[in-house]
Design goal:
The complex is a heterodimer. Chain A is of the alpha/beta class. Chain A contains 15 helices and 28 strands. Chain A has a 6-stranded mixed β-sheet with strand order 2-3-1-4-5-6, with helices on both faces. A 6-stranded antiparallel β-barrel of chain A has the order 7-8-13-11-10-14. A 6-stranded antiparallel β-barrel of chain A has the order 15-21-18-17-22-23. The N terminus of chain A is likely disordered. The two termini of chain B are 31 Å apart. The relative contact order of chain B is 0.17. The model of chain B has no long low-confidence stretch (mean pLDDT 85). The chains are: A alpha/beta, B alpha/beta. Chains A and B meet through helix 1, strand 2, helix 5, strand 7 and strand 8 of A and helix 1, helix 2 and helix 6 of B.
Chain lengths: 610, 286
C-alpha cells in the first residue's frame, strides 16, 4: 500500500485538480476489493510494475491472481480474507482524482463501514448478480440515505457468473430500486459489470451490448461536487472561546467552523439557544492576510464588540435566520452499540459542538434496516436497528432540520465511552416552554450588560451561577436542607442566596396574589432568580409553590445558567441530577449536593482571596 | 475549493476539538516535516499560541542538528518542550546492531509509552532554555500525532481520534465509529486517545503547505551542496539519504511528482519485516 498510495498520489498532482472521496459498499463477498483493485489498474493509477509484482508473487505462492490482492494492507485482513476497515487508496480519471474509501461489507464491521461512508461524497453500491439483493445490500442502502449521501451508482457485479443475462440485471434493478425508494434514496443509475473480467469498468463490455449506459469509471465522473454552502444562512457552532492572556494577547476569540453562510465584521449575530446577541468586531487569522469576512466551510475565529458570555455548543447565526430551539425533536437514528438503546435510560447527545443528556421520549417505530420490516411494540433499539423516535434533551438545544442544514441537523449518541448511534433530525416537536423561550430570547437579545462579565464573576467567586432547586413531597425535609446548604456555601466563602418563592409572592406578586395566575407567578419567580444568577449567585430554592411542570419554564427563563434538580424522597423526576433519601441526614445531604456541584464543574475552586 | 485549505481547515478543527476535550493533552514532535507542519497548524488553530506541551522522544541517536533545531524553535515560539528517553536501555548500550526492531521498540515505543503515562521521568525546558525534571508527571490522556494515512498500510486504518488501552495497545479490528466530525472524546480511566489531524494529508500536501505558508523546516530535507538530502528523518544509523539536488520546497515538490520510490524507503527498520510498522504501531509506536 505504501507505494501505491504515495506514488499514485504524487503523480496525480501535476496541476491542481479536483478531488472527490467516494466509498464502495455492499454485502460481504460481493466483490468490493476486486472492484477497487480493478479501478486502480484500469484507470492507470498503479505505479509501474506493481500489478506485475503482485501477479508474480501469486505465481510464486501457487495461487490464482486476484485484483483484491492489490489492496491487502493488513495481516489480519489477509488472514481472514475480509476487509476490516475503510482503507484509503487513490485513482484518477481525466475528470478528477478520487480517494476510494473501501468500507467493509461484513455485518460485524458496520461501524467501520459507516465511518468510511460518512467521509464520502458519493457511493458505489455493489450487488452480486448471482446472489441478488442481500441483507447488507439493504442495510448499506439505508445507511447511505441516513448519512445524507445522495449520489449513488449501483453496480451489479459478477455478471459473468449469470452469462451476462439482461433479465437477471433487470430483476435486481427493479427489486433494489423499490427498496431504496422506501429509504428515500434514488440511485443515479445501475451498471452491469464484472470486476474480475473487466466488463464495463473502463471500457464498454463486449458481452453486454444490451447495456447502453456509462461504464463505472464514466459514472463516477458523472458525480457532482456539492454546491458551495456559503450562499445559505449563517451557521457557526461555537467550538471554543479562547483567551490566552499570554505574551500580551488579550483577545477573546470565539472559534468555530462555518457550516454554512458568511460572517463579516459589523454583522449583528445571535447565539442559540442562549439568545445572546452581539456584533462581530474582527475576524482573526494567523500567518494569513488580514480579512473582514470568512465563509463556509472554513474554520474561523472572531471577536465581539460586547463581552457576552457564550460557550461551546451554541450556534451563531444572523438575527433574522436563527436555528430552532427545543428540548424535543423527531429523528431517525441507527444504533451500533453492543447494548441496545433503551427507553428510560439517559445517554449523551452530541449535536454539532453541543453535548447534552438525552433520552427517548417516544419510540414510534423500530425498523430492521435489512428488511425495512417495522415493529411498533419494541421498547428498545437493538444493534443495527433503525428507529423513528422523539428524543428529549435535558436542556434546550439549537438545531436545524436535516433537509434544511445538514451539519446542524444531525447528531450522534454516546453510550459509556463510545459513539453508539447516529441520527438525522426530521422535525421539531414543540415542548410546553416555547412561549417562555421566545420571551427569554427577546429579553436576552436586548439585555443591557455591565462591564463585569459572567466570566469575571466566576473567576472571582470560583464558581458559576446555578439554581439549585430542591424538590420532593411534603414533609421530606427539603426546607431544612435548603437552609443548611445556603449556610454551608456561605461559610465556604461562596456567593449563595436562599430564594424562597413565598418572598416573591409577598412583595413582587402583591398585585396578582389574589388572582393566583400561576403562569405569571412562575414567570416572576424565574425572572427574580434570573437576576440573582446574572449576578453570579448560587441560588438555593425549594419549590413548594410550583408543580414539577413549571420547572421547565423556570429552566427556560434562567438559561444558560443551569438548574440543578435535587430530589428528596420517593418518585424522583427522570431529569433529577441527584436523589437523596427523605428525613434522614440533612448534613449528609448538604455534603452530597456540594460534591455534585463540584462534579458538574459549577464549583471549581476556592474563591479569590481579597 | 483549494484542497490545501480544506486540509488545513480539517486539521484546525480536529486540533480545537482535542484542546477542548482533553485536559491532559500533548503533541508528539519528532522535528520531522509532518509533525513540524502539525505544530504550525496548532499555531494556526490557536492564533499564534501552542497551548499544550510538545513531547519529543530522544533516542540519543537522532541526527544532532535535529536537537539543536528543536531547542531553537522551542525558545522562539515559547513552546513547552518535554523530552523523554529510555535511560535504562541506553545505559545498557542498546543500539541498532542488536536488531533494528528491538532497538526501535526499546528506544522509541517503550520510551514513548512510559513518557506518556508519566512512569518515567520527563525533562522539561525551563525559562533559561535548559532541561530539568518535571515534578509529578501526570499521564497524558490525549496525544496528538502527525501520522498520515498514505505513509504505509497500517496508518490507512486509523481514525482521527483513535483509542489506546492502558497498555497503549491499538485494537485495529474493533475501533469506535467516527462520523460527521463527532470524534471519540470520552474515554475510560487509564486509557488514552491518539489524535491524528494529518490523516488525510499526503507527502506532497505537506511540502505544498510548507511552501504556501513559507514556514520554517529543518534544512536536512534540502540538498546543502553535496547532492544528497533526507526524505524522511529518524535516527542517524537507520536513516538513509537520497540523491537529490532539491534545495527548496518547490524543488522537492517537483521531484516528488515524478518519483516512484516510497517515502520510507530510506528507513532501515521497515525492511526487516514486511509488517514491521504495523507490529510497532499495535504496541504503541506512533
Amino acid at each position: 500500500m505504501t507505494s501505491v498510495a504515495a506514488d499514485t498520489q504524487n503523480r496525480l498532482q501535476l496541476a491542481p485538480r479536483e478531488q472527490m472521496n467516494i466509498v464502495i459498499v455492499g454485502h460481504v463477498d460481493h466483490g468490493k476489493s476486486t472492484l477497487v483493485g480493478r479501478l486502480l489498474a484500469d484507470s492507470g493509477s498503479l505505479p509501474d510494475g506493481k500489478l506485475e509484482a503482485v501477479q508474480a508473487l501469486c505465481k510464486r505462492q501457487g495461487k490464482l491472481f486476484e485484483y483484491a490482492f492489490l489492496l491487502d494492507a493488513l495481516e489480519a485482513e489477509r488472514d481472514q480474507g475480509i476487509t476490516i476497515d475503510s482503507a484509503r487508496c487513490f485513482f484518477k480519471t481525466d475528470e478528477r482524482d478520487y480517494i476510494i474509501i473501501d468500507a467493509p461489507g461484513h455485518i460485524e464491521f458496520l461501524k467501520n463501514m459507516i465511518s468510511g461512508a460518512a467521509r464520502a461524497e458519493a457511493a458505489i453500491l455493489l450487488i452480486d448478480a448471482n446472489e441478488g439483493v442481500r441483507e447488507n445490500s439493504r442495510r448499506h442502502g439505508y445507511v447511505l440515505s441516513m448519512l445524507g449521501i445522495r449520489q449513488v451508482t449501483v453496480a451489479v457485479n459478477k455478471m459473468d457468473l449469470v452469462d451476462y443475462d439482461q433479465a437477471v440485471f433487470d430483476r435486481i434493478e427493479e427489486e433494489y430500486r423499490a427498496f431504496l425508494a422506501g429509504c428515500g434514496l434514488v440511485p443515479q443509475r445501475f451498471v452491469p459489470i464484472s470486476a474480475r473480467q473487466g466488463d464495463n469498468i473502463a471500457e464498454p463490455s463486449a458481452h453486454m451490448r444490451w447495456y447502453k449506459g456509462p461504464t463505472i469509471l464514466e459514472s463516477v465522473d458523472l458525480f457532482k461536487k456539492a454546491p458551495p454552502r456559503e450562499d445559505k444562512a449563517l451557521r457557526v457552532p461555537v467550538q471554543d472561546v479562547y483567551k490566552f492572556n499570554t505574551r500580551g494577547d488579550d483577545r477573546r476569540i470565539v472559534a468555530g467552523r462555518i457550516e454554512s453562510g458568511r460572517i463579516k465584521v459589523g454583522d449583528r449575530v445571535v447565539f442559540s439557544p442562549s439568545g445572546k446577541g452581539s456584533t462581530v468586531a474582527s475576524v482573526e487569522v494567523f500567518n494569513a492576510p488580514a480579512t473582514e469576512s470568512m465563509q463556509a466551510p472554513h474554520c474561523v475565529g472572531f471577536t465581539l464588540t460586547e463581552q457576552i458570555f457564550v460557550e461551546r455548543g451554541e450556534i451563531a447565526s444572523h438575527v433574522d435566520s436563527a436555528p430552532r430551539v427545543s428540548t424535543r425533536f423527531r429523528a431517525n437514528l441507527f444504533w451500533l452499540g453492543r447494548k441496545p438503546m433503551q427507553k428510560g435510560k439517559s445517554y449523551k447527545l452530541k449535536l454539532t459542538t453541543k453535548e447534552v443528556g438525552v433520552h427517548i421520549h417516544e419510540l414510534l417505530n423500530v425498523i430492521d434496516a435489512s428488511e425495512l420490516d417495522s415493529s411498533l411494540d419494541k421498547d428498545e433499539v437493538g444493534r443495527h436497528d433503525v428507529a423513528d423516535v422523539i428524543l428529549e434533551t435535558r436542556r434546550p438545544v439549537a438545531f436545524d432540520l436535516t433537509h434544511e442544514f445538514e451539519a446542524t441537523g444531525r447528531f450522534v449518541i454516546v453510550d459509556d465511552y463510545d459513539v453508539a448511534g447516529g441520527g438525522i433530525i426530521r422535525e421539531v416537536v414543540s415542548d410546553s416552554f416555547e412561549g417562555a423561550r421566545a420571551d427569554a430570547r427577546r429579553r436576552d437579545f436586548e439585555w443591557v450588560g455591565g462591564d463585569v462579565s459572567r466570566d469575571d464573576r466566576a473567576a472571582r467567586f470560583g464558581h458559576r451561577a446555578a439554581l439549585v432547586l430542591l424538590t420532593g413531597g411534603a414533609g421530606v425535609g427539603k426546607a431544612l436542607i435548603a437552609r443548611k446548604l445556603e449556610r454551608a456555601l456561605f461559610d465556604a466563602g461562596r456567593v449563595a442566596y436562599l430564594l424562597d418563592g413565598r418572598n416573591v409572592l409577598l412583595g413582587l406578586d402583591q398585585d396578582i396574589a389574589t388572582t393566583m395566575d400561576s403562569g405569571e407567578l412562575v414567570r416572576r419567580y424565574a425572572e427574580v432568580a434570573h437576576l440573582f444568577l446574572d449576578a453570579g449567585h448560587l441560588v438555593v430554592s425549594t419549590t413548594n409553590t410550583f408543580a414539577l411542570a413549571d420547572h421547565g419554564t423556570i429552566s427556560t427563563l434562567v438559561a444558560p445558567a443551569p438548574v440543578v434538580l435535587v430530589h428528596i424522597g420517593d418518585d424522583p423526576p427522570h431529569n433529577a441530577d441527584l436523589v437523596l433519601p427523605a428525613q434522614t441526614d440533612p448534613e449528609g445531604c448538604v455534603t452530597a449536593i456540594r460534591a455534585m456541584l463540584r462534579e458538574q464543574n459549577l464549583v471549581v475552586r476556592p474563591p479569590e482571596p481579597r | 475549493m483549494d484542497h490545501l485549505q480544506q486540509l488545513e481547515d480539517q486539521s484546525v478543527y480536529i486540533l480545537r476539538e482535542a484542546y477542548k476535550h482533553f485536559k491532559s493533552l500533548c503533541m508528539l514532535w519528532s522535528i520531522g516535516k509532518d509533525s513540524t507542519v502539525l505544530l504550525w497548524l496548532a499555531r494556526k488553530a490557536f492564533f499564534g499560541h501552542v497551548p499544550f506541551p510538545l513531547v519529543h522522544i530522544d533516542t540519543s541517536y537522532k541526527i544532532p542538528e535535529m536537537i539543536a533545531y528543536r531547542d531553537r524553535l522551542a525558545r522562539e515560539w515559547s513552546l513547552r518542550m518535554v523530552v523523554g528517553q529510555n535511560r535504562e536501555a541506553l545505559a545498557d548500550g542498546m543500539n541498532h546492531t542488536r536488531g533494528r526492531l528491538a532497538c526501535c521498540k526499546a528506544l522509541k515505543t517503550d520510551a514513548l509509552r512510559h513518557t506518556l503515562d508519566g512512569t518515567w521521568p520527563r525533562m522539561v525546558m525551563n525559562a533559561r532554555g535548559q532541561y530539568e525534571p518535571e515534578d509529578n508527571p501526570e499521564p497524558y490522556t490525549g496525544v496528538i500525532v502527525g501520522a498520515r494515512a498514505d505513509e504505509e498500510g497500517s496508518r490507512s486504518k486509523e481514525r482521527y481520534f483513535s483509542p489506546r488501552d492502558h497498555n497503549s495497545d491499538w485494537d485495529v479490528a474493533d475501533q469506535p465509529p467516527e462520523l460527521w466530525s463527532q470524534f471519540k472524546t470520552d474515554f475510560a480511566p487509564g486509557t488514552h486517545v491518539r489524535i491524528h489531524p494529518l490523516l488525510d494529508w499526503t507527502e506532497i500536501n505537506i511540502w505544498e503547505y510548507i511552501e504556501r505558508e513559507n514556514m520554517p523546516i529543518i534544512d536536512l530535507y534540502f540538498d546543502r551542496g553535496e547532492g544528497i538530502r533526507y526524505r524522511s528523518l529518524g535516527c542517524g544509523p537507520c536513516t538513509g539519504n537520497i540523491r537529490s539536488t532539491a534545495r527548496t520546497p518547490t524543488e522537492i515538490i517537483t521531484e516528488l511528482r515524478v518519483t516512484t520510490i516510497a517515502e520510507r524507503a530510506g528507513r532501515a527498520q521497515d525492511q526487516e519485516d514486511p509488517h514491521a510498522m504495523e507490529k510497532l504501531r499495535r504496541e504503541g509506536y506512533m
